[in-house]
Amino acid sequence: xxxxxxxxxxxxxxxxxxxxxxxxxxxxxxxxxxxxxxxxxxxxxxxxxxxxxxxxxxxxxxxxxxxxxxxxxxxxxxxxxxxxxxxxxxxxxxxxxxxxxxxxxxxxxxxxxxxxxxxxxxxxxxxxxxxxxxxxxxxxxxxxxxxxxxxxxxxxxxxxxxxxxxxxxxxxxxxxxxxxxxxxxxxxxxxxxxxxxxxxxxxxxxxxxxxxxxxxxxxxxxxxxxxxxxxxxxxxxxxxxxxxxxxxxxxxxxxxxxxxxxxxxxxxxxxxxxxxxxxxxxxxxxxxxxxxxxxx
Length: 296
Hints:
Largest sheet: 7 strands, antiparallel
Structural class: alpha+beta
Radius of gyration: 23 Å
Oligomer: single chain
Strand content: 15-25%
Low-confidence stretches: none
Strand order of the largest sheet: 1-2-3-7-6-5-4
Order of helices and strands: HHHEEEHHHEEEEHHH
Number of helices: 9
């Protein structure tokens, strides 16, 4: 009987060790990230509850909160660096930074795509690098990030990167990202999916021109999300100005009819974009980003 119990305990012990070893680096990262969010959020609650007077106590609580947030993000960045591995992309700095600026829910930068963000030497472009497993986990978390009235994010990576809401949620921005038209680029050999679009940002109403490019590449077990402001703007498109004005003047601006009017303008813009000055430059810039990722 005693021997049987010892054998059972040994088997259970070995089983638990195997489960621990089976936990992936990505799983350990998400466990650490969620624990950090809980820890910093609790500190934020403590800071909020601290009386405004005396000011010294309030200031010390804020300092403690800020230091804790920075320390937790530094640990997460080290984990992410170990997961992503060495990353040399032509024209980009070698040291990637964690792609979010805070661990407090509701703050700007919270919930952005988990990965390392590399910045170009000229500071006009960034590329976020993550793994396929992390990307899929993030998509699951963000399926209905904005609730029932927001745009859902598709769970297939190749489809998700074609949705405006994906870029607004994945990148650090204080504005909504709007895709004006897909840019037709070459798909490097070995890539699972590739997508590029011409876009812009807005806080109120659709812009008249597009001045950024966004790219997405899935290959080699990693996902690369790029954004560049290195191009001259495409547009305005004179033939589409009327459709844009109609969309801007419609009230209320948040209902389904407003979305349809905006879509009509974007459809017009997309149809005429290739004939506009700077369009070819945008395609070349997008292809350069994609080829740079594929060559690394």
